Amino acid sequence: xxxxxxxxxxxxxxxxxxxxxxxxxxxxxxxxxxxxxxxxxxxxxxxxxxxxxxxxxxxxxxxxxxxxxxxxxxxxxxxxxxxxxxxxxxxxxxxxxxxxxxxxxxxxxxxxxxxxxxxxxxxxxxxxxxxxxxxxxxxxxxxxxxxxxxxxxxxxxxxxxxxxxxxxxxxxxxxxxxxxxxxxxxxxxxxxxxxxxxxxxxxxxxxxxxxxxxxxxxxxxxxxxxxxxxxxxxxxxxxxxxxxxxxxxxxxxxxxxxxxxxxxxxxxxxxxxxxxxxxxxxxxxxxxxxxxxxxxxxxxxxxxxxxxxxxxxxxxxxxxxxxxxxxxxxxxxxxxxxxxxxxxxxxxxxxxxxxxxx
Amino acid sequence: xxxxxxxxxxxxxxxxxxxxxxxxxxxxxxxxxxxxxxxxxxxxxxxxxxxxxxxxxxxxxxxxxxxxxxxxxxxxxxxxxxxxxxxxxxxxxxxxxxxxxxxxxxxxxxxxxxxxxxxxxxxxxxxxxxxxxxxxxxxxxxxxxxxxxxxxxxxxxxxxxxxxxxxxxxxxxxxxxxxxxxxxxxxxxxxxxxxxxxxxxxxxxxxxxxxxxxxxxxxxxxxxxxxxxxxxxxxxxxxxxxxxxxxxxxxxxxxxxxxxxxxxxxxxxxxxxxxxxxxxxxxxxxxxxxxxxxxxxxxxxxxxxxxxxxxxxxxxxxxxxxxxxxxxxxxxxxxxxxxxxxxxxxxxxxxxxxxxxxxxxxxxxxxxxxxxxxxxxxxxxxxxxxxxxxxxxxxxxxxxxxxxxxxxxxxxxxxxxxxxxxxx
Lengths: 358, 424
Hints:
The complex is a heterodimer. Chain A is mainly β. Chain A has one helix spanning 2-6; strands spanning 10-17, 21-27, 33-39, 45-53, 56-65, 69-73, 84-88, 92-96, 106-109, 115-121, 132-137, 142-145, 155-159, 168-174, 183-188, 192-197, 202-208, 213-218, 227-232, 236-246, 250-257, 263-269, 272-280, 284-291, 297-299, 305-307, 311-319, 325-330, 337-342, 346-352. Chain A has one domain (9-353): 7 Propeller (Methylamine Dehydrogenase, Chain H). In chain A, 51% of the residues are buried. By secondary structure, chain B is α+β, with helices and mostly antiparallel strands. Chain B has three domains: 3-89, Immunoglobulin-like (Sandwich), CATH 2.60.40; 91-189; 290-418, Alpha Horseshoe (Serine Threonine Protein Phosphatase 5, Tetratricopeptide repeat), CATH 1.25.40.10. Chain B is built from twelve helices and nine strands. Chain B has helices at 93-197, 202-214, 223-232, 260-275, 281-284, 294-307, 310-323, 328-340, 344-357, 366-382, 386-399, 404-423; strands spanning 3-4, 9-12, 16-22, 33-35, 39-44, 47-52, 57-66, 70-77, 240-244. In chain B, helix 6 runs parallel beside helix 8, helix 10 runs antiparallel to helix 11 (386-399) and helix 11 runs antiparallel to helix 12. Chain B is flat, with a radius of gyration of 57 Å. Chains A and B meet through strand 13, strand 16 and strand 17 of A and helix 1 and strand 9 of B. Chain B: It is found in: Cell projection, Neuron projection; Dynein axonemal particle; Nucleus. Chain B: Residues 173-210 are annotated as: Disordered. Chain B: GO terms for molecular function: nuclear estrogen receptor binding.
């Protein structure tokens, strides 16, 4: 029993029932406020700003937009401005100033179909280089935008002419450790994972994990790429060791089949990049720790370097709801504080304890 | 006839009777002794001792001690009285019988009662044990709950503390910012005065926009450091496009889209087809073993087709079909033979049968289906049924759009149709 209680516990702190479908929830950096976005029953988009007060969430502001909102990020904005970038069901990318949300600061109809996933890099005082936003859409393209350049993306990853397109379900930035280097990882619904190098504007690596990729995330955006977690349908997720790329075999990986249902999201703890949480289609959250192998790379028979994947251990799991938990975000300011939104129209604030002792 | 044991001696006190019964040389076990409250029997076949007791005794407490060659009974009387004799004197046969039966019955009842009592106590014990374990588990659960609750409270308190810190920090920064704004406004006013006298300072334009931008935000940076930061950001990337390919869709497509059900059905059909052998023994008796194998016959037919012996090929296929009428390839090949032999109607029939058997349509039987459509199309055209022919060619093209021959032929047919309609 003692060993069981030394493990991190997931404590439910506050929850709020909403009257709209919740697609994404994000903490506002440097505050105890969070943003929930989704689709109202009447087909419009809703953005709600809550503040954590006591054990409750208090609604501060509600903003309604024409199209339902699917995803959002604070990743490409400075800490003073804290502009929020959203992708909506109509393929529009907008950046909002939450103090004056009537007119977006930046707006572009980036895609022909719904923007499934968005990520930002270069903002919030993390990393170096120009702030950029990447969006992945159902039309099979992945586009990188610079808020200083109107209408045209700065990079466009699209299928070859005549190729039947696959939906892009998730995108993530990584490897942004200096001003030039940057990498975008995209996951598609047929199991493809592609890694694009934005410095050389080329495809650096691709692989296929058989099941549709629901979520990819690097453990840190602003360091030399270290680990990449990709989650997929049917309860499997893969952790790739991104330090050593073998010319033919690519990156080493370890995979785990944790839940019987789709793993919707993976999020790394901002304060410790070896701990991450996966959220599942059965309403459960699993907290994992990655342990590095004794040697991270070894030589294969031809003398080329190849990576060695480590091992995973499950720290804790908890079932919060019967519906899938579709969005998850750790607070960058308080270690262990996280918010998750599920399809049962509730947003929950959780605290994960004892992360210092892990 | 049992041997009666009559040499017994007895003495009594007010409350008990002591009876000693010699049983020289006999082995006595407790099973040999039978006692109820009015009747005592010791039966060691062939020896028998029985006594109808003068008065009732307490048979549960009475004891019998089996010693060497003697049994010593200690019978406790139910009523403290003095017995005239050990047994009832005037006991006639009937009474004896009755008493004996009674005794036996009583013994039975007693045994039953005892077992029932035992069962009851056992149940009670079990119940008690269950309740005890339940209580233990409940206590354990409660303990864990309490621990969790304590954690929760601790964590909530920490969160509140952190929040207060955040709020305090924000307030401070806001105050700081307002102070700075005042400063900046004053500086601007000074600079404006300067501008009226001197040339415009390049920073002015940017400083105005800087102030506009910091309105409503927390900014503790001074004007100059913000300018520098702006310059540090690299220019937007030059636009470029990366073209990508997706993993080709082979037989096992992306799992959630795989047409596994259809493909399984196709494979099952194939397997079944191989197994059905419509036996027509009377005619096939004189065939050799290999000639009864449809695959072998198909190969034979193919070889003969290759050498140009179309009639023989048709014969081979016919026999194969008789043996197994579910293999689509047989019909397909026979159609080709009929085409060569200009048996066009038969060719159409066979291609149609082949197409029927080639359902469900999966990537596996694409080639076969293309061939079937092409052959049927050719047959139609040779019968001058050009529209049907074109239909089949287009179906073949749909499956295999990259085949140049099919395209050329389809074009030819189209021209022909247009030519004939023009004539009319």
